[in-house]
Protein: Thioredoxin domain-containing protein
Organism: Rhynchospora tenuis
Amino acid sequence: MQSYDYDTDEELDYSGTNIHVIKNKETFEKIISESTKTNKMVVMNFNATWCEPCVSASRFYIESSKKYPYFLFVAVDIDDLDELASAYGVDATPTFFFLLGGTTIDTLVGAHKEQFEKKMEILARYNITKPGSLSKPSRVQTILTTHVTIFTMQNPKLLHLFINVTFPFDTRKGKTGNPHIQTLLITSFPQCCLLL
C-alpha cells in the first residue's frame, strides 16, 4: 500500500507556473488545437480540489512542468469540467493523459511519482519538438495495416512509431514503462519493410 504525505491545509495551486488551468471546454479545445498544429506534447492532469492524492501529485506535476518546458501542461478540475472528464473516461483522480497530435499515447492513474517521472523521461527522449530537434516531422503517415513498405531517399533514417494501443482497464494496472513508442533505424536498403 502506498502512503502519501498530505498537508490537509494545502490546495491545488498552479499560480506562477507554466501549467494551463482549464476552466471551460472552449479553452481546452483551443489549447489542443494549437498543440496539434505545433506538434507539441500535452501532459494533461485531471484532478479535484478535494482529492488529497491530487495535492500530492501537484507537487511533482509542477516540478515536471519546469523540467520539460517544451511540453504543454494542462490541469483540469473534474468538478469544473465533468463532461470533459467523462469524455476521457476519467473515473479516478488524479489521472494523467499524454497526448500528441490530439491523440492519447499513454495514461497514468494515481499519484505515482516514480511512474510519472519514468513516463516523462521516456516521452522526452522521443519528443520531436524539444530544442535541437525538428519542429515537425518531415512526413507523417497513418499506418492502418500491419505490413508497410517505406522507401527511403537518403539512408539511414530514424523512424519514431507512436503506437496507440488500448488495453482493458485491469491490464493497465501494474504496467510500467509501456510508452507505446518504438524507434526504428531504417538502414541503407533501398526499400525497407516493417512488419508491425
Q: What stands out?
A: The longest strand covers residues 103-109. Confidence is low (pLDDT under 50) at residues 1-9, 131-156, 166-179, 186-196. The chain has five helices and nine strands. The longest helix spans residues 52-67.
